[in-house]
Amino acid sequence: MNELLNQTSIKINDKVFLKNPESSNLGRNIISESIFLINELGFEKFTFRKLSNKIGSTESSIYRYFENKHKVLLYLTSWYWCWLEYQLVFKTVNTKDPQEKLKTAIELLTQTAKQDSNYSYINESVLHKVVIAESSKLYHTQEVDSDNKDGLFLVYKRLVHRVSVMVLELNPNYEYSHMLISTVIEGAHQQKHFALHLPKLTDTQDGEKGITHFFTQVVFSSIS
Amino acid sequence: MNELLNQTSIKINDKVFLKNPESSNLGRNIISESIFLINELGFEKFTFRKLSNKIGSTESSIYRYFENKHKVLLYLTSWYWCWLEYQLVFKTVNTKDPQEKLKTAIELLTQTAKQDSNYSYINESVLHKVVIAESSKLYHTQEVDSDNKDGLFLVYKRLVHRVSVMVLELNPNYEYSHMLISTVIEGAHQQKHFALHLPKLTDTQDGEKGITHFFTQVVFSSIS
DNA sequence: CTTAATTAATAGCTTTACTATTATCTTTGC
DNA sequence: GCAAAGATAATAGTAAAGCTATTAATTAAG
Asked: What is the pLDDT of residue B1?
């Protein structure tokens, strides 16, 4: 049942991996433990050797699933965005009022991910931390254009587009819907990171609620 | 004369370097060429060996100036923010109208840096590209807290604070002035990067002007 | 002009990132 | 039930990156 839900809802572009990690125990272990290890060490100090030690396997076995650690992080973030998109659709499908719908979307994009028991080998709240701390490194590389050509950012772009459509529902003349939504998503991550490490760059009177409130207010005042 | 201006206006925290690169020919060469090389290769593929080959020196000589390449990038971005702060003060000192002042600040923060002939060994427009593409990596590391303790982000925090004061001049009750300004600075960089590499995430009808227009509108509508 | 102090170059070491090859484990056809 | 074929994992490497101890050369002080 979990497996079924897994297969149907979360679909990752197969150019990210050499062999689908969902297809074997070792593969699922790679995904599961890489989340913890990247969170623990940071992406720079995360290596396949350390990961293989942790899961009792070898470096070259991991290389059979992923070309390099960059692709592992791409897999993890794609999974995260896909999962979030699924929740977005689920939470807004019954909402008629476009204003309410956009508000729900912004809350989802700016709040902390909750654990989801449907995917047993993925810890969503740790994954969320990894996405906040590391995901921007995925497109700040020399390979960004070829990765983009391969469709490795498709899920993310689709999510941004989906929310920007909600913006246009409210104001069809608004010129910067994509800019606004990608600013909200990336900005919310950044502000959470700043709150933890560089609090002078943010205003943390009321923590996470502040971030959601700030971005909600930014969006609605900008498009009206 | 250039040297004098150099010494007086741009002051870098001396914990960034082991030996001040301004103090010697080799040091200035390291700064000058590292800008081009990081821009060319990206930060990941930039190494001290490659840099030393380019400037006709050796790896270990560069290590006498900087602990590692991370500190070089910290030096470059600190220099950039310091230089921008200097321009901000210069451009707004005679502006009385707080609205006009903030508008000038946002333009400066969201537009492309122009070449400044006062600093002969630094190419500001290439440095700006480096800051856009690489600077976020500086605080997405395991060392962010200790770097912050050492004051390596002070210039940046001071710049954000300076502009957030302008926001508070216009609306003393606005709760998120720092969040707003750090979102603008980081967001403008991000959108420029997206426009080049992931255009689906932005709205590039009118290029750079669009970005300035978007963020100006976001700021003024949010604080009013 | 000799000695001390500073600075640069040489050579090497450890770790990372990756790969070619060998070994082992499953199938599955008969 | 078992051998051949195919798939999977472990071994053993290589090249480059990141860093350092040591030696050589240059500059400054007395």
From this structure: 34
Domain residue spans in chain A?
A: 2-223
Q: Do B142 and A179 touch (CB under 8 A)?
A: no
Q: Could A182 and B203 be called an inter-chain contact, meaning their C-beta atoms sit closer than 8 Å?
A: no
Q: Among candidates B157, B141, B190, which has minimal Cα distance to A43?
A: B141
Question: DSSP secondary-structure letter at A50?
Answer: H
Q: CA of A58, closest CA in chain B: separation in Å?
A: 25
* CB B137 under 7 Å to nucleic chain D: no
Q: What angle do CA B131, B135, B141 make, to 5 degrees?
A: 170
pLDDT tens, position by position, A56-103: 888 889 999 999 999 999 999 999 999 999 999 999 999 999 999 999
Q: What is the C-alpha separation between B222 and B188, in angstroms, rounded?
A: 17
Compute the radius of gyration of chain B from its Cα atoms: 18
Contact of B7 with B82, CB cutoff 8 Å: no
Q: Give pLDDT, residue A5.
A: 39
Question: Cβ(A184)–Cβ(A67) under 8 Å?
Answer: no
Q: Hunting for tokens 């002007």 — which residue is that? A: B209
CB atoms within 10 A of CB A156: 24
Q: Which of residues 14-53 of A touch strand D (CB under 7 A)?
A: 19, 24, 26
Q: Give me the DSSP letters along B85-105.
A: HHHHHHHHTT---HHHHHHHH
- CB-based contacts of A83: which residues, under 8 Å, 6+ apart? A9, A10, A116, A119, A124
Q: What is the DSSP string of A158-219?
A: HHHHHHHHHHHHH-TT-S-HHHHHHHHHHHHHHHHHHHHH-GGGS--TTHHHHHHHHHHHHH
Pick the closest to residue A6 from A36, A28, A34 (CA basis): A28
Cα–Cα distance between B131 and B128 in angstroms, integer?
5
Report whether pLDDT(A6) > 60.
Answer: no
Coil/strand/helix, residue B204? coil
Measuring CA to CA, which residue among A7, A6, A30 is closest to residue A17?
Answer: A30
Interval A22-39 mean pLDDT: 91
Q: Which fold has domain B2-223?
A: Tetracycline Repressor; domain 2 (1.10.357)
Q: Are B144 and B179 in contact (CB under 8 A)?
A: no
Distance CA B194, CA B204 (A): 9
Question: How far apart are the C-alpha atoms of A131 and A149, rounded to whole Å?
Answer: 22
